[in-house]
Amino acid sequence: MNPLETLLQEMILESGPISVERYMALALGHPVYGYYRTQAAVGAEGDFITAPEISQMFGELIGLWAVEVWRLMGAPKEVKLVELGPGRGTLMADALRAVKVAPDFRDAIEVHLVEISLPLREKQRAALEGQGIRIVWHASLDEIPPGPAIFIANEFFDALPVRHYVHRDGGWRERQIGVDENGRLFFGVSGAHESAIAAKGEPEDILEVGVGAARLMTQLGVRVVTQGGAVLAIDYGYSEPARGETLQAMRAHKFVDPLESPGEADLTAHVNFSALARAARGAGAAVHGPVTQGDFLARLGIFERASALERAAAPAQRAAINSALERLAGEGEGFDRATDMARLFKVLAVTRREFDPPPGFAEGAPNEG
């Protein structure tokens, strides 16, 4: 039993069961024992791999996307390029290298990174050293100074805590975490129905509600509407509302029990993109997409970029480029998160209503604003 599990047990025994949302918040963000406070998380030596770690092409295209969005904004003399949850800094490093082709954009940007993990901050500093651009770290979105900003959130919303409700005895009861007779954490349900949930359900149906994700998207939408800029959200998830839970834990690239050794595994849930879109529209913003990651990257030119890299690569490197391209944007057989990010991952952009569709969304990706 690790220190955080002991702390959670004491909390539950003293004050009663806690929600799934509260458990995720503590397991990931406890100031001393939380996962993102203590673990390196991303990369081959961590617990999971993200798209920027698969190929430089991903970050390069995101950087060029930001340049075009900045131009659609009217090329303001000062703009903040903000990444939420920047991992090891790989995406931003690749993006900043790519935007050297747009020196006017580089002169205008100031980079802001929202990161609570101290180990990851050190990796980000190493990755971004010598860029010649001011880089500022923050613990939360609230700390970002005012002004036009382009926000990049790649695999960020999936880590925000969710609530679970189980349909039982004719109504919805919140799923909670308690302590069993053996002193172990377990899933149970509240004794009271949630009268505020009007949705119908079948016995044992589960509703997964991303309250934190919707709240953050509302905040981002308000900021874009009032101060200018755009949001680009890329994550694994679904476009239409669905029943069932998607809470999962990963350690050393393997799925583990979410209640086992809290603070030592990455906890995530699939992102409800329809809920993100509703939140952004409710803030007065325009919504573009969501589209699949494969379609988005194809429209940005990933296949052309891969061909260029292949022409300059040694024969042994060409297979790696093709493999990365297939994982990021291909449409191969089968369907799982490790090998089929192209379809499972979705991409959504948020802008002001008068904004033209940003790159990657103009074809078949209607503006829902």
TrEMBL record:
<keyword id="KW-0808">Transferase</keyword>
<dbReference type="InterPro" id="IPR029063">
    <property type="entry name" value="SAM-dependent_MTases_sf"/>
</dbReference>
<dbReference type="Pfam" id="PF02636">
    <property type="entry name" value="Methyltransf_28"/>
</dbReference>
<dbReference type="GO" id="GO:0032259">
    <property type="term" value="P:methylation"/>
</dbReference>
<keyword id="KW-0489">Methyltransferase</keyword>
<dbReference type="GO" id="GO:0035243">
    <property type="term" value="F:protein-arginine omega-N symmetric methyltransferase activity"/>
</dbReference>
<protein>
    <submittedName>
        <fullName>Methyltransferase</fullName>
    </submittedName>
</protein>
<dbReference type="InterPro" id="IPR038375">
    <property type="entry name" value="NDUFAF7_sf"/>
</dbReference>
<dbReference type="InterPro" id="IPR003788">
    <property type="entry name" value="NDUFAF7"/>
</dbReference>
